[in-house]
UniProtKB/TrEMBL annotation:
Belongs to the ANT/ATPSC lysine N-methyltransferase family. It comes from Zoarces viviparus (Viviparous eelpout). This is Uncharacterized protein. The chain crosses the membrane at residues 20-40. Keywords: Membrane, Methyltransferase, S-adenosyl-L-methionine, Transferase, Transmembrane, Transmembrane helix. InterPro entries: FAM173A/B, SAM-dependent_MTases_sf.
Length: 217
């Protein structure tokens, strides 16, 4: 009985991993997380204060596949295109190379500056791609016959009402990831997080006109 309980406990104490985190490591992790949060806030938050909380949409760049899906769903179309919440301009750049005259509306001034300098750097003329720092909820979209939006599920219904009021009958709307709740889709492309939906405004209008109204008793 050499290995008495005291010896075993002594050995255990020698190899047992200490549960106390190293103070320098903890401080570094905290500093890193604070820094990351600061960078995220810098890109996601400016311009947001004036937007009602239920309509706030943070910045999240669309994937390459999502952007390709948008372009597929715009095939055969021409004219003016509005990207609602244009971020760093990636959808606008893709659509302008497909021949559209694009305007990106973006509330975050840092992202607008980023998109504008990218346009300057890559030599994309303003006749093809323009970026404006503007709240799209306060923008009249009636001169656009193509609209793209990668926003959030909670705003799609309100956005649908706005678009139905303003867009011309021949307009096409592309929604990334989050579909319009009551609109009949023309088609969709991709799957999962990259799924993208297209709608023709004339079809949506006639569909909604034909839905029988329920009369309250
Ligand atoms: C999910 S991100 C999509 C960014 C970009 N369209 C893309 O696909 O990479 C949504 C963008 O909408 C912008 N945004 C949110 N509300 C806005 C508003 N009312 N007016 C203009 N831009 C807005 C955000 O700042 C953010 O950049």
């Amino acid at each position: 009985m050499e290995d008495s309980i005291d010896v075993i406990l002594q050995d255990y104490g020698r190899v047992r991993p200490t549960s106390r985190a190293h103070p320098v490591l903890t401080a570094c992790t905290a500093a890193l997380l604070t820094g990351l949060y600061g960078v995220w806030r810098l890109f996601a938050v400016p311009g947001f204060r004036k937007i009602p909380w239920n309509l706030k949409v943070p910045y999240l760049p669309s994937s390459k596949v999502q952007t390709l899906n948008i372009i597929q769903l715009l095939e055969g179309r021409t004219g003016r295109l509005a990207d609602l919440g244009s971020g760093d301009g990636r959808v606008v750049f893709a659509a302008s190379s497909a021949g559209f005259q694009c305007t990106g509306f973006e509330i975050n001034s840092i992202l607008v500056a980023c998109a504008k300098s990218k346009a300057l750097w890559t030599g994309v003329p303003s006749s093809q791609a323009t970026f404006v720092k503007k709240d799209f909820w306060k923008t009249d979209l009636s001169t656009y016959n193509n609209v793209t939006a990668f926003l959030a599920p909670g705003v799609m219904e309100v956005l649908g009402e706005k678009l139905l009021k303003e867009l011309p009958d021949d307009a096409r709307v592309i929604a990334c990831r989050f579909p319009f709740p009551d609109w009949p889709q023309k088609s969709s492309f991709g799957s999962g997080l990259d799924q993208t939906f297209s709608y023709d405004i004339s079809t949506v209008r006639s569909h909604l006109r034909n839905i029988p109204k329920t009369v309250p008793h």
